[in-house]
Specification:
9 helices, Rossmann fold, globular, about 260 residues, seven-stranded mixed β-sheet, three-stranded mixed β-sheet, 2 domains, 10 strands, about 30% helix, alpha/beta
Length: about 260
């Protein structure tokens, strides 16, 4: 990993869980002798699965914690008011009247785009290779799966897998190829100011650059789905300078489409 991370909990009832996660992900548990840049914290939660996972940067002037929440906040607002099936993301991945494409999201991250796709009726497989980001997202999906309003669609339409996307795509059978393969690779930060969202700063520290993004795009194209969609900043060059067949733009984002 790109930086020092430790697991932590204040609740004795979660200690064995944290120690088990430590062995799975090979991330140490915080102790008095350990210096760390980030803490993946486990706190008790009053609904299943019984705990909440947050990521916090250490230091007195560090910004707040990051968590995944599909029930409230930005995700809920986007689900209710994001434009539905006519929004740019929906059109880019191939949603249209009577068509809900199957999707593999190869760079799941916080899962926000995949959640939108799932809410619009798509079956989405989310791939995330970084164990810290995976653990945050997995906890968010687990908590959401028990919610009365969105639990059914999360359970039915979102499947999270902790794996390397290139390796995963390399082993797909013809029957497993989805309609759409989606990429949202990490884009280099231009500065470290407060204007950059803390989630992006944290993820850049933890996961580093997606140096194999161009290779992932080529692997996705080689799978021959109906389309490959790459999310880019609106002013950015196409990934790998590979010219797309079409593009759909929103205010700050562009979706490059390869048929």
């Amino acid at each position: 990993m790109a930086t020092n991370i430790a697991l932590h909990t204040e609740q004795p009832e979660l200690q064995s869980l944290v120690e088990n996660k430590s062995q799975i992900y090979q991330i140490p548990v915080l102790n008095d002798q350990l210096q760390t840049d980030y803490i993946l914290d486990y706190a008790s939660f009053d609904a299943p699965p019984g705990y909440l996972v947050t990521l916090q940067k250490t230091g007195k002037q560090s910004p707040g914690a990051v968590m995944v929440d599909f029930v409230e906040g930005k995700a809920a607002h986007r689900r209710l008011y994001g434009g539905g099936r006519n929004q740019p993301l929906a059109r880019a991945i191939g949603i249209k009247a009577g068509v809900n494409p199957t999707v593999i999201d190869t760079t799941a991250g916080l899962g926000r785009d995949s959640f939108v796709m799932a809410c619009l009726g798509c079956k989405v497989k989310l791939l995330e290779r970084n164990p810290v980001i995976y653990e945050l997202l997995n906890n968010g999906i687990e908590r959401a799966s028990y919610d009365d309003s969105i639990g059914d669609l999360v359970r039915n339409n979102m499947q999270l897998i902790n794996c390397d996307a290139i390796n995963y795509l390399d082993h797909l059978t013809a029957q497993q190829i989805p309609n759409t393969i989606y990429l949202d690779p990490m884009y280099p930060l231009r500065n470290k100011t407060a204007l950059v969202k803390k989630e992006m700063r944290y993820f850049h520290d933890i996961a580093g650059k997606d140096s194999d993004a161009v290779k992932l795009l080529q692997k996705a194209i080689d799978c021959h789905p109906k389309r490959v969609v790459v999310k880019r900043p609106k002013s950015a060059l196409p990934l790998g300078e590979l010219k797309p067949a079409a593009s759909i733009e929103s205010k700050n984002t562009r979706y490059d489409i390869y048929f």
